[in-house]
């Protein structure tokens, strides 16, 4: 699946190390619930699965202090690392990210203490302040996080930091992910070439639990604390917040951005054209990560992109697009490559928004073409053969027009497959 | 799975014919999309599946005019039969129900015309007014309903009406249903013994499409038009509206009640004790039908009953209970019989309601016992063996206490299985 182009940005190689002055590393410190054997590794290799014996602890470090911002899950159950990161980002500054997989450090009495210890261990090794460390965890919730493997591994983790260490860090945050999700772009700001890169994990755990998303983005562009937060808060609304694998909002979701300013552009301090360029680059990164996440949804075989236009407001368009990509019936039909437009219209119809269903048109499309399946709320004749050909592709577009105004929105989802049930029905250990 | 007892009502045999003076019948008029062969029938028998070659048209008739009420889907896409039934029930009176499966008569230009024709055909055969007929359809949407099979079959359908015809009518409304869902109760009102019975279809289609629910309830109790509607509108909120198989709201959902008054009780005309008795009986019927529907959810192997207590309001309790039974991650865990309480707490946490997550307790239970898995928002030690034993049962209870007030609610759902995906991923024809 290719990246989706965005104007004024160029895709380049890499991820969180693409921007100038960011080092990363990932190691296997040994957080697995039970010792992994060589047999496990051989089985994983034979099944072409992500090895269980894999990195589980990552560090990302900027050469200089960064302005930084984050957005967090809206779940009332919040992982301890989120509480600590929120505190550390109050001043809008950060230098490093420490993150582990396997254990979410959530719903444990000593969670905050452990999250603070992770920051302190990293800070000590790097010679920076613990308050400059962002901490994140993903994995099983409600199991006490063993700090020893992290403490024991921190020295080698820090010593192994390199300017091309992003693949090792990426492996450390992956869980049931079957694809590596990283991206980098270059763009011009204030006459300087800036670079921005990011990596994302989603969704699930090796011992599957949460549809957790963690996203880390780094850039060498210069931007104020206030505006990096504003850019992130705006862009997340139209990217990751419009992607759904199964409608479950995890307890540990976090997206953070660190901006070092090493590119030498005049720092963005107001919502001007330069800010728009920054936001555009962030959109290119996060929109493509959202697509990759949906495509790699647990058990998914297809990315579903639902574009709604002609709504009275953007909010209505968003509500309708999300309603479609969240419908289990529709998602199962996509897995079956069944042009069952009735399910699309049904999901449009129960979306909690005000519009005239009798003005709704629906098209389905892919690289193989686009066909009308519904006009003015009623079915139209179409070739089932052509529909089958279109739905055989990996990226499917559902194009809905509401005929009421200028509002539009895109949402991303995936099909619902046997493997989703298999992955999530398995026992925790 | 047994009926769940309700005070002051006694379960009796039967369904829509249990109350005095109600006849029913069901026939195969031939609405199937393609001719069914004896090979199909043999295959169905071999697979222990509901035969595709089955009844597809049903009629329920009261000997005398009834007060009647209905509630309908909130989907903006409404099947044509719903529009016609709404019109016919404006005066709160009805004598008969005509209903077909296979084709939903929805999103067709001639839908209302066809629904009216169904009423006229039935009325003519029964010698009653078309306005006294309730009409319903369930099946594939967006395909023109062929009226000929219905017209041709109406005479024999009416001629075959009997006071014990409920099994034939029930078969006619079933689609992917694997269990027959009917129930009847007796209760005292004004010194008379009244009977109430009902049948429900849900969920899916032989050519699977909508998670459609149709429910028909008959009683010989006497109650005014206004109060039968009030009773139904109240009871549906705490029964069928708290059951979810997959979160999709169909276009053709309808629940209707017909009350003939043949039991001879003094008609209920105000919200007194007698009204409460009527409502209690209706609750016993609809609560048990809701449980049966959830248990028979597409591909389900278990009924999940989530009871929330201690909420500030009933609304909050309902929101939390529904959030849990709708979580795909939780549902897949139940299929895997995995006591993954983190997923329960996660779904509690993202419920759109205000409460303190740190006061939430969670228990899981079944006929094999009840165990605590979470107290004050954090995990507690429990025996995985005991949990496995509890979750091995067919009916699973999730008991959540919020610790904030008197509000409580129960919601019903089912596990998410391979078969759900299989049933709904299949091609329409």
Q: What would you note in describing this structure?
A:
Two copies of one chain form a homodimer. Chain A has 429 residues and is α+β, with helices and mostly antiparallel strands. Chain A folds into two domains: 10-295, L-amino peptidase D-ALA esterase/amidase; 303-425, ArgJ beta chain, C-terminal domain (Ubiquitin-like (UB roll)), CATH 3.10.20.340. Helix content of chain A is 32%, strand content 25%. The first copy, chain A, has twelve helices and 15 strands. In chain A, the strands form two sheets. In chain A, strands 1, 2, 3, 4, 5, 6, 7, 8 and 9 form a nine-stranded mixed sheet that branches.
- Low-confidence segments of chain A, given as residue ranges, are 204-211
Overall spatial form of chain A: globular
Give a quick account of the main beta sheet of chain A: strands, pairing sense, barrel closure. Answer: 9 strands, mixed
Distance between the termini of chain A: 33 Å
> Which oligomeric form is depicted?
homodimer
Topology order of chain A in helix (H) and strand (E) letters = EEHEHEHEHHEEEHEHEHHHEEEHEEH
**Mean pLDDT of chain A, nearest integer?**
90
Name of the CATH superfamily of the largest domain in chain A: L-amino peptidase D-ALA esterase/amidase
Largest interface: A-B, 60 and 59 residues
CATH class of the largest domain in chain A: Alpha Beta
- Total strand segments of chain A: 15
Percent helix of chain A, as a range, is 25-40%
Give the class of chain A from helix and strand content and strand pairing: alpha+beta
Rg of chain A to the nearest angstrom? Answer: 22 Å
Name the beta content range of chain A: 15-25%
| Helix count from the secondary structure assignment of chain A | 12
Q: What's the domain count of chain A?
A: 2
CATH architecture of the largest domain in chain A: 4-Layer Sandwich
- The fold-level CATH name of the largest domain in chain A is L-amino peptidase D-ALA esterase/amidase
């Amino acid at each position: 699946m290719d990246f989706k182009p965005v104007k004024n940005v160029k895709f380049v190689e890499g991820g969180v190390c693409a921007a100038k002055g960011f080092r990363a590393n990932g190691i296997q410190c040994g957080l697995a619930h039970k010792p992994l054997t060589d047999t496990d590794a051989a089985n994983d290799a034979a099944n072409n699965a992500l090895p269980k014996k894999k990195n589980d602890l990552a560090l990302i470090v900027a050469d200089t202090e960064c302005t930084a911002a984050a957005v967090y899950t809206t779940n009332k159950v919040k992982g301890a690392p989120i509480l600590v990161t929120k505190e550390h980002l109050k001043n809008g500054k950060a230098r490093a990210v420490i993150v582990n997989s396997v254990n979410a450090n959530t719903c444990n009495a000593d969670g905050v203490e452990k999250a603070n210890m992770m920051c302190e261990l990293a800070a000590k090794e790097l010679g920076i302040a613990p308050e400059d460390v962002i901490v994140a965890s993903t994995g099983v919730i409600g199991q006490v996080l063993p700090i020893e493997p992290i403490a024991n591994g921190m020295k080698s983790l820090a010593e192994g930091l390199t300017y091309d260490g992003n693949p090792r860090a990426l492996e450390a945050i992956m869980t049931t992910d079957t694809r590596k999700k990283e991206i980098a772009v270059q763009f011009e700001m204030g006459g300087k070439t800036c670079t921005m890169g990011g990596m994302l994990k989603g969704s699930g755990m090796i011992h599957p639990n949460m549809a957790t998303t963690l996203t880390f983005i780094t850039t060498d562009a210069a931007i104020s604390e206030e505006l990096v937060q504003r850019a992130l808060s705006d862009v997340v609304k139209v990217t990751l917040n419009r992607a759904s694998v199964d409608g479950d909002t995890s307890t540990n979701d976090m997206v953070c951005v660190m901006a070092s300013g090493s590119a030498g552009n005049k720092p963005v301090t107001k919502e001007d054209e330069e800010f728009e360029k920054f936001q555009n680059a962030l959109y290119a990164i996060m929109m493509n990560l959202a697509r990759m996440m949906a495509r790699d949804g647990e058990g998914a075989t297809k990315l579903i992109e639902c574009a709604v236009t002609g709504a009275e407001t953007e909010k209505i368009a968003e509500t309708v697009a999300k309603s479609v990509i969240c419908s289990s019936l529709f998602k199962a039909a996509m897995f079956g490559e069944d042009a069952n437009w009735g399910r699309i219209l049904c999901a449009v119809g129960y979306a909690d928004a005000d519009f005239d269903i009798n003005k709704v048109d629906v098209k389905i499309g892919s690289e193989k073409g686009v066909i009308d399946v519904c006009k003015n709320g009623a079915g139209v004749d179409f070739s089932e053969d052509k529909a089958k050909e279109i739905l055989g592709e990996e990226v499917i577009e559902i194009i809905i027009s509401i005929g009421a105004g200028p509002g539009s929105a895109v949402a991303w989802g995936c099909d619902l497959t046997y493997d989703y049930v298999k992955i999530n029905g398995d026992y925790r250990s």
